[in-house]
Amino acid sequence: MALPEITIIRDTREQQGWIFEPEEKKPGKIRVLGTETATLDAADYSVKGYEDLIRIERKNGFGELFCNMSPKAHKERFEREMEKLRHIPYKYIIVETVLSDDALCLSVPQMFRGPPSSAVLKWLFELQMEYGIVPVFAGDAGQRTARYLIELAIRKANG
Questions:
Q1: What Å distances lie between residue 5 and 23, 56, 152, CA to CA?
Q2: Which domains does the chain have, with CATH numbers?
């Protein structure tokens, strides 16, 4: 079976996110044709024609997650968005940070009073249990991790 060529969709609300550049065709790899900006009902990234298969929410560290978690109105809005992803088989929150004991003891944001990062981590796991959205801690390899997850989902869908 021939592997498809795909276009990554970046949601219009994702201001400083990833741009997937067109790739050369390589044997055994799905080729990315580029990035298109369009409106997604939930999450930041998907694949054109596979919007019901995969969604990726990108977070630039615990600080951005904290902004989604507090105040309560932000948390409720974010959880409503995650609810929209229930029917999507492959859904991820890629957090561009790494976990360490030290990081989990810091307050978020670190310069101000706030809950420890461990509270944000707990919330992420609660989102996974409630909505099935998988948190992935990718450090500075967020875009590469997203590309890898997209490839796996598309391969699975195409048998």
A1: 10, 19, 14
A2: 5-157 (3.40.50.10130)
Nearest-angstrom CA–CA distance, 8 and 18: 10
Q: What is the pTM of this model?
A: 0.91
- DSSP letter (8 states) at residue 56: E
Mean pLDDT per 10-residue segment, the chain (159 residues): 90 94 94 97 98 97 83 92 97 91 60 68 94 96 98 93
Q: 70: which 2 tokens? A: 């507090």
The residues near 29 (Cβ < 8 Å, ≥ 6 apart) are 3, 23, 151
3-state secondary structure of 8: strand
Q: What is the 8-class DSSP label of residue 34?
A: E
Residues 6+ apart with CB under 8 A from 25: 5, 31
Q: What element of type H or E holds 97?
A: none
User: Would you say the C-alpha torsion 110, 114, 116, 118 has a positive or negative sign?
Assistant: negative
Say if residues 23 and 147 touch (Cβ distance below 8 Å). no
Query: Are the beta carbons of 66 and 111 closer than 8 angstroms?
Result: no
Residue 38 tokens, joined? 């369009």
Starting at the earlier edge strand, list the strands of the sheet with 54-59.
Answer: 31-38, 5-11, 45-47, 54-59, 90-95, 134-137
